[in-house]
Amino acid sequence: MARALAGCGARVMILERGFYLPREPQNWSREAVFLEDRYKARETWEDHRGREYHPGVHYWVGGNTKVYGAVLHRLRQEDFGAIEHEGGVSPGWPISYHDLEPYYGLAERWYLAHGEAGLDPTEPYRSSPFPFPPIPSDPYMLDLAEKFRNQGLHPYPMPLGLDYHASGRCIRCRTCDAFPCPLGAKADSHVCGVAPALRDPNIELWTGAYARRLRTDESGTLVTSVEVERNGESLTVSAGTIIVACGAVNSAALLLRSANAMHPDGPANHSGQVGRNYMVHNNAVLMAVHPTIVNSTVVQKSFSINDFYFRGPGFPYPMGNLQPVGKVQPAMLQNALHWAPARMLRQVAARSTDWWVMTEDLPDPENRVTVVSNGRIRVHWKPNNLVSHQRFIDTSKVLFRNAGYPLVVTKTMGIETNSHQVGTIRFGDDPQSSALDQYCKAHDLQNLYVVDASFFPSSTAVNPTLTIMAQAIRVADHLTGRLSVGGKTAILLDTQTDTPEIRRVRDVAI
Predict the structure, then answer these.
(1) Sequence-distant (≥ 6) Cβ neighbours of residue 139 within 8 angstroms
(2) Which tens digits make up the pLDDT trace of 154-179?
(3) CA–CA separation, 462 vs 120, rounded Å?
């Protein structure tokens, strides 16, 4: 969002809860990342029973993209319309693929997308090619792709955002998916979004700035300021336009925490939709183990399969997307298989190929984010569409057994795995059933936008990241003709001394 606003003349303040993620040897340490959770947020949320859990959130400049798998899928063209699933109906969006298509292309260029069009049987049309060719596949993965083709499937190169070219920083290492990159070679939102934005002298970044609540004027039609905690101080940041981009769970929590007399259920919540329809995909990890063949693959995330995206064999409903994860290492298995001896874990990891089985999670208003009395976030989530997900798991097992893997095991992910969180502040044309309009502006307020994964009315069954990026650019394109560059005084109030400190003029606070 900040990069898209750069150069438009508006003065922008970015309020970032976290700090810069350090580039250090532990970035590539399996033990530090998977056993010590070195880069995860040190906080707990609650499930609907009040049970504490440690969510997969990362508060850094760049957010969760610092450790994401760099997968940059476009939604399918059909995903923007209503789709019938075995477990219910996935609703249509207030915009079409055509509305986002040019912004997908720009996001792919900004985020260094590698891929090849024409091989995915479900892919939508494109007005521009991929900026870079596919990341090269290792022989093991090329052989596996051929085994899938022999079963009538259409494996296609994974669209990945990496700085991999003649003068690029990517070295094709095994520590990419789920790891921070000390080389700055992963196309994350720090490297490709915030850093370019900060070249504009009108854009400023505050780290360690936690947005506690939003304030509105007496009429309740404008957000006037953001209450911020920073360096032990309570401050107030004012701006003419406020853009909330905290992630699907935290954005909903911020609005719910901001309830006041004019907005007793929180700003943007006249419809009662804020916090509802939380979706996170139905996910399972599949490990196919060959007893004698060692998997020497370096970059396992090389191709994906969408042949069952809209229907499965002998099953008339959508199943989802099948894609590899980063090559599993023994330390990654240790938490799940703590009883297993180290030698066994090494043997299994060396001979496995490791995949992500992903099925759409359908919107349910009872799957929701709330803030309980102690201020803690509570996530009510009961997975649905499980018949389709189990059929997809069973179908995937058959594929790998037919490819020569006698041992195929799966593990279904739970509430803690929330890297694909979407929904909670859905957009739509009807203010009675949605919180935001098609440009992510709150129906209830003149100057409040929510531009992150919150706006999704459905989760689809591919990674949401590129769609979040594309919509952010689209919203910025919409805003740049409307933002006043005349400015508004931003006042930070130190509540300990009651002395206001006048800051530089700001038009936008993100």
Answers:
(1) none
(2) 999 999 999 999 999 999 999 999 99
(3) 13
Which residues are CB-contacts of 168 (< 8 A; sequence separation ≥ 6)? Answer: 162, 185
According to the 3-state scheme, what is the secondary structure of 430-491?
CCCCCCECCCCEECCCCCEEECCHHHCCCCCCCCCHHHHHHHHHHHHHHHCCCCCCCCCCCE
> What does 157-216 look like in DSSP terms, one character per residue?
E--EEB--STT-S----S--TTS--TTS-B--TIIIIIHHHTTSTTEEEESSEEEEEEEE
Residue-wise burial string across 214-230, b where 16 or more C-beta atoms lie within 10 A, e elsewhere: bbbeeeeebbbbbbbeb
Q: Which pair of structure tokens corresponds to residue 198? A: 């900060």
The C-alpha atoms of residue 141 and residue 52 are separated, in whole angstroms, by 39
Estimate to the nearest angstrom the gap between the alpha carbon of 284 and the chain centroid.
17
For 375, the token pair is 């201020």
How close are the terminal C-alpha atoms of the chain, in Å? 8
Please give the structure tokens belonging to residue 168.
């690029």
CA atoms of 286 and 226, how far apart (whole Å) = 44
Q: Which two tokens stand for residue 51?
A: 């049970």
Q: How many domains does the chain have?
A: 1
Is the torsion defined by CA of 163, 105, 449, 255 positive or negative? negative
What's the token pair of residue 451?
């531009």
Tokens of 368: 């929701």
pLDDT in tens, 67-82: 999 999 999 999 999 9
User: Are 94 and 429 in contact, with CB atoms under 8 Å apart?
Assistant: yes
145, 189, 234, 269, 473 from 452: Cα distances, Å: 34, 12, 25, 17, 11
* Amino acid found at 351: R
Q: What is the CATH number of the domain that holds 401?
A: 3.50.50.60
Closest CA to 63 of 30, 29, 110, 15: 15
pTM above 0.85, yes or no: yes
Phi, psi for residue 204 in degrees, rounded to 5: -125, 145
Radius of gyration of the CA atoms of the chain, in A: 23
Domain containing residue 218: 2-509
